[in-house]
Amino acid sequence: MTKIIEVDKLSKSYGPVKAVQDISFYVEKGDLFAFLGPNGAGKSTTIDIITTVLMPDKGTVIVDGLVLGNEDDKIRSSIGVVYQDNLLDRLLTVEENLFFRAGFYGFNKDRIRESVKNAILTTGIQDYAKQRYGKISGGQRRRADITRALINTPQILFLDEPTTGLDPQTRKNLWEVIRKLQRDREMTIFLTTHYMEEAAEADYVVVIDEGKIAARGTPFELKEKYTSDLLKLSFKDEIKGLSDLADWGITYTKAGDQFIIRLPHTTDALPILDRCRENLNGFEVLNGTMDDAFIGITGKEIRE
């Protein structure tokens, strides 16, 4: 296990507002790491600190072995950031934007051409690289934004809600690009998202709320701890089924012809199904989701 980002006892306030309060976490190299929280939770402040945009009031941050506050230029050279808002010039072509951005890194002309060419090939935007950025679709712009963030061949790619507003097929295509980067380059992906199905694919998740770490773990661990599964039963003889559930002390709710039982764990469905096997007309087990886990952790909808 190699830690590529280490955050220790980080705090940041804006006057009386404590945006981040003594938080600590780490990110393993090559992981897809999801950093979640409702609006105003402290996500943006934390990311701005890690990416050298802000300095903390207290705490230490180490990025790829580089200490924040001492080696900020080197940190910026080792990361790429895709913000939620589009930053490229709408009047320039995608390729012109990339050449312009590559110049920020102090590359010579040959290095700039090579960097732009490689970034374009990596994300597969050749077909519209010579079109104006403002004229291409939303999904194409997001892919161009990621291309811009790859110009310096970063070790870590920060994605701030990269698929917000995109249709499902475009989101799927964009995630294929992101996963390819992670797989082929062993790139670490630091993600914030409002789509919990994206967070469910992460290797590790940290949830921040009101400036503090509210929960952490793999998606499976968080769902196990903060959600319940549901068992839905349909009986051949409903009166007998109702009587059996009462005799067994099983609490349920009823919707139409279905009896719904909340389960602490998926495997808790097995003894119930075994008991009423002969009277079953059908059943369904619904697993808890990352949406359920998020609400269970914070008590809030992430889209609020």
Describe the structure in brief:
By secondary structure, the protein is of the alpha/beta class. The protein has helices spanning 43-50, 72-78, 94-102, 109-123, 138-149, 168-185, 196-199, 219-226, 238-247, 269-275, 290-298; strands at residues 3-14, 17-28, 32-36, 58-63, 66-67, 79-82, 156-160, 188-192, 204-209, 212-217, 229-235, 253-255, 258-263, 280-286.
Topology at a glance:
Layout: E1 3-14, E2 17-28, E3 32-36, H1 43-50, E4 58-63, E5 66-67, H2 72-78, E6 79-82, H3 94-102, H4 109-123, H5 138-149, E7 156-160, H6 168-185, E8 188-192, H7 196-199, E9 204-209, E10 212-217, H8 219-226, E11 229-235, H9 238-247, E12 253-255, E13 258-263, H10 269-275, E14 280-286, H11 290-298
Parallel strand pairs: 3-8, 3-9, 6-7, 7-8
Antiparallel strand pairs: 1-2, 1-4, 4-5, 9-10, 11-13, 11-14, 12-13
CATH H-level superfamily title of the largest domain: P-loop containing nucleotide triphosphate hydrolases
Q: What does the overall shape look like?
A: elongated
Helix-strand string: EEEHEEHEHHHEHEHEEHEHEEHEH
Say how many strands there are: 14
CATH topology (level 3) name of the largest domain: Rossmann fold
Q: What is the CATH domain class of the largest domain? A: Alpha Beta
Number of helices: 11
Low-confidence stretches: none
Q: Could you give the order of strands across the largest sheet? A: 6-7-8-3-9-10
Percent helix among the residues? Answer: 25-40%
Ends apart, CA distance between termini: 36 Å
